[in-house]
Amino acid sequence: MTSRFLLTSVLTACIAAAGCGSSSKANVTVMGTTTISTGQELIDLKRALDEGAISQRDYDKVQKILLDRKS
């Protein structure tokens, strides 16, 4: 998986789930749609940061979105 694809996947998941009240659900596939756990999103986000695909600033923004979504 390329860093660019990883970043796109993480940001797409964050945006898609930002307002739907998702919590730390397990990965579940229903009718072709996958719900990814918050924990997995955070792991993927950290990997994108570590690989240089996103800046620390972008990491901090998306991390806050993910963590605020749990509240």
H/E series, N to C?
Answer: HEEHH
Q: How many strands, which pairing sense, and closed or not: the largest β-sheet? A: 2 strands, antiparallel
Topology, number of strands: 2
Range of strand content:
5-15%
Low-confidence region ranges? 17-25
Q: Give the structural class.
A: mainly alpha
The chain-level mean pLDDT equals 74
Q: How helical, in percent, are the residues?
A: 55-70%
Q: What is the straight-line distance between the termini?
A: 31 Å
Could you give a quick summary of the protein structure above?
59% of the residues lie in helices and 8% in strands. With 71 residues, it is mostly helical.
What this model shows, in words?
The protein is mainly α and 71 residues long. It has one domain. It has 3 helices and 2 strands; from the N terminus they run αββαα. It has a two-stranded antiparallel ribbon with strand order 1-2. Strand 1 and strand 2 form a beta hairpin. The relative contact order is 0.20. About 13% of the residues have low confidence.
